[in-house]
Amino acid sequence: MSEAEATNGGIKPFSHFERLVAWRYLRSRRRETIVSVIASISFIGIMLGVATLIVVMAVMNGFRAELLTRILGVNGHLVVQPIDMPMNDYEAVAARISNVSGVQLAVPLVQGQVLASGPGGAGTGALIRGVLTEDLTEMDLISGNIRQGSLVGFASGEGVAIGTRMAETLGLALGDSITLFSPEGDVTPFGTTPRVKAYPVAAIFEIGMSEYDSTVVFMPLNEAQLFLNIEGLAQFIEVFVNDPDNVDALRAPIEAAAQRPVAITDWRQRNQAFFSALEVERNVMFMILTMIVLVAALNIISGMIMLVKDKGHDIAILRTMGATSGAIMRIFLMTGATIGVAGTFAGFILGTFLCLNVESIRQFFSWVSGTVIFDPEVYFLSQLPAEMETGETISVVLMALILSFLATLLPAWRASRLDPVEALRYE
C-alpha cells in the first residue's frame, strides 16, 4: 500500500484488495480445515433453512388455497336462510338475489343426512344436496370434473351424481343403482317409517377433496324435496359472488333483494375455526423453522471468531502496512456475508425447485417407502399443493440475509479492534 493511500484513510470501501483478501480467507487450506468445515456447515445450514422455510410456507399456502377453492366451489360464499316462515318462494328470491351487482349465482338448496348403500350391501353416511340442474351446471367445480357419465340423466330427474370415493366405497359404477335410506319418511298409524328409494348413478365426479367426493350426493331439487318430505320448499339459498373477500359489502343489497326476513352467514363465519387453525399453524411453523436459519447464523459467528483468531498475525501485518480498522472490518464482513448470501440464494433455488416438483417428490418417496405420504383421507386433498407467494418468499430471503449480516458484525468488529502490537509481541 502506498503512503498516499494510508494518508487518505486507507483502502477504498470494498476495494479489489479487500475482496481479494476476503476470498483468500474463504478458500480451504490444509491448516484451516476446521474453519473451512464450520463455514461449509454454516452454508449448508442456511441453504437448508431457507429452502425448508420456502417449501413449508408454499405448501401451507397451497393447502389453504386449495381447500378454500374446493370448499367455496361446492358451498356458497353466502348462505341466505329464511326466518319466521318457510321459503316457498325460493325461485323468486333466488332470481332477485342473482340480479344484485357482484353476485355470480344464487342456488336454492335442500339437503339432508341419509344412509347410502350399493349393490354389495356396503353402507355409508351421505349428504343429499338437492339442486336445480341449471345451477349444478353453473358450478364449475362439479360440472367441470365429471369423470364418468354426464348431467343429462340428472337433468331428466332420473339419476343422481356421486363422488368417486363414494363410488369406490359402495362398489358403484355408472348406471348402477344407489339405495338411499332417510329417517324422515312416511307417517303411519304405527309411527314414522324410514323412506327407502334406489336411484341410478347418472354421473360420477371428482373435485379432489375427499370429504365431498366420499359423502355428497347431488339430486334434482324436485326429487330431493319429495324424498326429504319438504315438497315446494327450499331450506336455504347459497350465493356465489365475484369477490369472496368482499362479502360484507353485499350483505345489505342481498338482504334487500330477498324482500323477506332472512339470516345471512358468510364463508368466513362458517369455516372460522378451520381457517383460524390453519393460520395459527402457519405462523407457528414459520417461527419454528426460522430457528434453523438462526442456528446456521450462529455457526457463522463461531466460524468467523475462529478465523479471526487464526488470522491474528495476518491482521497485525495488514495494520502495520497501513490498512485501517475499517478495511479489516470490511474484509471479515465480506467473508462472513459471502457464506450467508451464497447459502440464502442456494436455498432459494433449492426451495423453488422443490416447490415446482413437490407432488413428484411426494410420489417418489411414497414409492420408496411403500407407504402413503399425505393421505387424502386425512388431509382432504388428493395431491400435495404448493403455492409460492412472492412477498412471503422475499421476506424469507431478506430475513436470512439480515441474520447472516448480523452474525458477521461481532467477529468483524473484533478483528478491526485487534491491536497489532499485542498480536506480534511474541512473534
Task: Supply database-style keywords.
six-stranded mixed β-barrel; alpha+beta; 19 helices; single chain; elongated; disordered N terminus; 427 residues
Description:
This protein has 427 residues and is α+β, with helices and mostly antiparallel strands. It folds into two domains: 216 residues, no CATH class; 176 residues, no CATH class. The protein contains 19 helices and ten strands. The chain has a six-stranded mixed β-barrel with strand order 2-3-8-5-7-6. The chain is elongated and about 110 Å long. The N terminus is likely disordered.
Ordered list of secondary-structure elements with their pairings:
Blueprint: H1 3-7, H2 16-26, H3 33-74, E1 78-82, H4 90-98, E2 103-117, E3 123-131, H5 133-138, H6 140-143, E4 146-149, H7 152-155, E5 160-163, H8 164-170, E6 177-188, E7 191-205, H9 210-213, E8 216-220, H10 221-227, E9 236-241, H11 248-258, E10 262-266, H12 267-270, H13 272-310, H14 312-320, H15 325-356, H16 358-369, H17 376-379, H18 390-416, H19 420-424
